[in-house]
Every structure is written in structure tokens, then in C-alpha cells.
Amino acid sequence: MAGKIPIHTISLGCPKNLVDTETMLGTIADSFEPVESLQEAAVVLINTCGFIQPAVEESVQTILETAQDIEDIPDRPLLAVTGCMLARYGEEMKQELPEVDVWVPLSRQREAGSYLLQALGRKESEAGSAFEPGAHASPPRVISTGSSYAYLKISEGCDRSCSFCLIPRIRGRMRSRTVASLKEEARSLLDRGVRELVLVGQDVTEYGRDLGPGQDLFALLRELASLPGLSWLRLMYLYPSGINKELLNFLREITPPFLPYFDIPLQHAHPDMLKAMGRPFATQPDRVVDLVRSHFPRANLRTTLLTGFPGEGEEHFRALYDFVRRVRFQHVGVFAFYAEEGVRAAEYTGQVDEERKEARRQEIMSLQAGISRELLAAYQGQEMPVLVDRSHPEWPTLYEGRIWCQAPEVDGICYVSGESLFPGDMVTARIEETWTYDLVALA
Questions:
Q1: In this predicted structure, which of 79-88, 134-143, 206-215, 301-310 has the lowest mean pLDDT?
Q2: Domain 383-442 = CATH 1.20.1300.10
Q3: Is the terminal CB of the chain with fewer CB neighbours within 10 Å at N or C?
Q4: Interaxial angle between packed helices 314-327 and 354-377, expressed in degrees from 0 to 180 and rounded to the nearest 10
Q5: Domain 5-127 has what CATH class?
Q6: pLDDT in tens, 107-127
Q7: How far apart are CA 107 and CA 87, in angstroms?
Q8: Count helices and strands in the chain by DSSP H and E runs
Q9: How far is CA 391 from CA 213, 312, 325, 404, 411, in A?
Q10: Taking a C-beta distance cutoff of 8 angstroms, is the pair 392, 399 a contact?
């Protein structure tokens, strides 16, 4: 580590962005060493999110606050910014934020070392060779999530044309990584002690459609499920129209390690709204839920929903509310629609006022809180495997972990008491208390 340049990273937005940050750290590892604080750093790199307006505002605020914080450091670190916000706004963002010293384009993140070294006045050759994204080899990567889990990003971009989404414009068409490179990366993660792999992509069900024969989701999952050391395999971002009997039958075959946890972003329940959103399953969204539960009676269901989409009247919202009450999802994320510049829906008639959007969002979340509380109460007194993520910062015998139906970062957690536990440990614990979203257990 001697002689390496200390770098502090801040990753905003989704897990896919976090993987990008970890990969950047891996590609510059010959020259840069990650550090925990701004005070230790010679470079601060912020990977921004630009998906919706609140994410953009958070990114801008983080940049401004960080710029202010580093001004008080005697040897001020270099401030570098990359990510989706830069891809979305480009030169406009550069003009608005003169506090930033270096801008690393989203499409050139694998060459981040060259940008940073040049700004530091160092020779670009010190950055090492940039990883070629089209190569079959797995990209180098520094894991920031600890020993318990890691994200595996299987594709980039999206071919869908949802009327509320900017991802295809920001990230481009879908590009799948090869099965070979993903298997190599997964093996590397497991060799480092990771117990759970969380597969992420804009649409996991579409994986491999742009590749040749033998490079589909079935082939990938078959290879991953056979790897030694893999305890849990979780799939996130399953597009509803991509879930069918063939896929579900296959998932049963690889259980375990596949977890019957289905993250299905439905967005709405009323056919008028789904059609306006450009979703290709505009009738009977219950069908995908019933199909999953017919194959996995114990399935854990997560979804995301939009309230206040243009044209959403009271009857549309009531249909959504009744749908959530009837289906009883284990996990629900609700977002108020933002009329983002560049999305088709921003030009639609029937825009809903902000206060009503938020009131509807709160109403769904209140309903879901009661459902979550009731569902978690069923775990009271059960003995369950808990995957330990980290120690609690204040209590030496308290740890934060998850049972199988809690995905990292987006769901609740399980607080587990025990002696001499470590991140990555899988322990059997008795559920002693159940709350609205979290659990308390004793190992």
C-alpha cells in the first residue's frame, strides 16, 4: 500500500451504481488506496445518481457539502465527480458546479485512474491499463459491502420504453455481460468469503437476449448455483412480463441456494395507468403474483409503485390501494411521480398536483406498514438462519443481519444478540421481537 494515493469514495443511488464505484476502485487499485474519511484522502470521488429529481438534488447537495468540508482540510483533496447525473446534464452540470476539479464521464469510468492522475499532475502510465468492458475476464473490484453479501451486476442499460423512465437515455441499450465473466467474478467474490450474491440489472429477466446461444439467464443461474460457498442467491429487478412458468420451474430446480424472494416492480395496478406508463402487461397484474405463488407458496414479494402518474384519478388510486391490501406484499416501495425533463409522461395531460401525489404515497405506505407488521409477527418465536452483515457500532454483543426474506439495504434488518459473531457468519437465532419492518433475535 506504500506510495499509493489515498482516495475516499461516496456512492449515491442504486446498487448498480455501487458496483460501478467498486469496479472503479478495482481498476485504479495499482495507484490508489481507499480510505474511510475525507481527512485522509488526496482525492474524493462522488458517484452520482440522476434518475429522478430528488436523486439529482441529493447528488448536488452531497457535492456542495463535500466541497465545503474539504476546504477546511489543510492539504485540500481533489474533488472528482462521475455517474448518472453527469451523463444526464453534461456541460450544464459542469458550469453549475465549479467546485468540482475533475469530471469523469459515465462512459469512461474504467479510465478513471487516467483522469485522476492527470489532475494530480502524475504520469498517466501510473494508472495501469484500463479494463476493457467487452472482455470475457471479470473486471477488478474492491468490495465495500463486507463479507456477507455482494452485488453482481449482470447487465448495463435497458431496452424498455417506460414513459416515466430516463434509464435508457442515461445508460443506453441493454448490454449483457458474458456468463463466463460473471461466473469468474462470482467465484472471486465467494473466495473472499461472501455468502450471498445479489444479482442486479435494469431488467434481470432480459439477461442474455443480446448474446449468443447458451448465454441466457438459465445458463447463468445454473453456473452460479453450482459454485461452492454460495449460501444465498437473490434476484432483484424482475420485470413482470419476463416471469413465466418456464423460469419459475427452473428456479425451483436451483433452490437452494436460490431464495424465493421476488422483486417485481409493478408500478401500478390499474390497466389505464399501466398502459399509459408503457408497461406491456396492462391487464390483470394479479396474474404475475398468482403465478409466482402457485410455484412458490412461501414466496416473499417486493414491489415498487408510482402514485400521481398523469391521469391518475381517484378510481385509479383506489384500485392500486385495494391491490396492495389484497396481495399483501412483504415489501413495498412507493414513489410519487416526478415529471422529469426528457420523459414522455412529463408531456402528458392530466398532471396530478404535488400535494395529492404525496398524500397518496403516504396512504399506501401507511397501509403497507400495517401489513408488514402483521406478516413479521408470524416469525415470533421461530428459530431461523440469520446472515450477519456487521457489528453494531454501539453495543459489542449486538449485530445487524438479515433473515432470508430481507434483501440488503432496501428491506428491514434483524438485530441479533450473540457472542463473537463476525460479518459473513450464518447463525441460527430465535426471533424474540417483531417490529414494523425489523426483527430482534437471540443467537
A1: 134-143
A2: no
A3: N
A4: 10
A5: alpha beta
A6: 999 999 999 999 999 875 544
A7: 8
A8: 13, 18
A9: 45, 45, 36, 19, 18
A10: yes
Sequence-ordered alpha helix ranges (H) in 192-270: 217-225, 245-253
How do the domains of the chain map onto residue ranges? 5-127, 149-377, 383-442
Report the candidate in 431, 395, 428, 394 with the shortest Cα–Cα distance to residue 413.
Answer: 431
pLDDT tens digits for range 22-38: 999 999 999 999 999 99
Phi, psi of 330, rounded to the nearest 5 degrees: -70, -35
Write out the three cell numbers for 100: 468540482
Side-chain-facing half-sphere of 368: CA atoms under 13 Å:
23
Residue type, 277: M
Confidence of residue 284 (pLDDT cuts 50, 70, 90): confident
Which residue reads 456542495 in cell numbers? 64
User: DSSP assignment of 359-405, as one string?
Assistant: HHHHHHHHHHHHHHHHHHHTTTT-EEEEEEEEE-SS-TTEEEEE-TT
CA–CA gap between residue 151 and residue 154 (Å, rounded) = 9
- Residue 329 near residue 291, CB atoms below 8 Å: no
pLDDT (mean) for 43-65: 94
Residue type at 431 in one-letter notation: I
